[in-house]
Each structure stands twice: as C-alpha cells, then as structure tokens.
Task: structure prediction
Amino acid sequence: METDIPLRDIMVREVVTGDEDMNVKEAAKLMRKYDVDSIVVLNNSGQPVGIVTQGDIINELVSKDTTPSTVKLKDVMTTPLITGSPNDRLSDIAKKMAAEKIRKLPIIEDGKLVGIVADVDILAVSSQMNSILADLIEMHVERDIVGQESEGEGIGQGICEKCGCFSNDLVMKDGLMVCESCKEEMESGE
Result:
C-alpha cells in the first residue's frame, strides 16, 4: 500500500451531517437518501462533535425497542470524535483506525469538517496499488525472460505454463516458463 498518500487525495468531501438536536429518525432518512451508513454530528457552532452509525442506531434504539423520533443524535453519538487532518498520511490513519477499531474518520481542517475517510476508501487505494504492483512485477518478469541468454536457464519460482503447478525452479522451454518435469517431458517428445 502506498504510505505517503495524504488523506486529502482519498477523502470523500461530501459528508452527511446533522445537528445534535436532530432526532434519529430524521438522521436515518438522511442516511438512506444519500446512501451512507453514518452521519457526522455538529454542535450549534457547526463544529463536528460526534458520529452516529447504523450500528449505533441498531444497538441503541432497535435492540432497546426505542422510538427513533424520540431520541436525539447527541444521545446516541460516539464521542469524543476521533479525527484526522487532510495532510495525515494514509498509513498512519490506517493504523489509527485499526487501533481505535473505527471504520469512519472525519477529516478536520482549521476546525471545520472537510471530508471523511472510510475503511473501504483505504482498501480501494490498497487494491489499486496491488494492481499496479502486479503489473510492474509482470513487466519485470517479461523483461527478464526476453533478456535470457539461453533457453533452459532457470528463471525462478512461479506457475508452470504447461501443467499449472507451482514450481520453485521454472525454466524457459519453447517460449514457455515450465517446471523441470514438463521441461523433461517436452525434451523427450522432441
């Protein structure tokens, strides 16, 4: 995973918010409307002070058979709010989120909510980086194969292109990366 990416490059800038006195029913409607699973709670000054997730609603209301329209966000929000800065590095925030066991991290700049990062955002970046890394490895392997001095020279471990088995000692034979058994089979069939 690329570790030097600042959060500003991956954060979602449109954050669904509600004030402390909003009731849970209204918040749930906003969450449904915008297809999100959390809402950041703001105080009267517009400062982020907490977060309410679908899990909070289930744990605090549904499991206790409480009517959502009678409960305010300030009564069920998770607080104190754990936040990050747009300049924080992805690797640091991933570790922080894991340590705190949180899936959403509001991003604050100059006291204002400017975005949010979710665990899925980090996974998406990680997946993209893994894909790029795989492409780079493939290009390196292709370059090494093209640059081989002679056929039959060992090129390392991988999947045999003839039998599909993993081998610690692949060799190039007739343009294929093959295991020793397949190489011998190909030579005996010549």
Remarks:
- The beta strands are 17-19, 38-42, 48-53, 104-109, 112-118, 154-159, 166-173, 176-178.
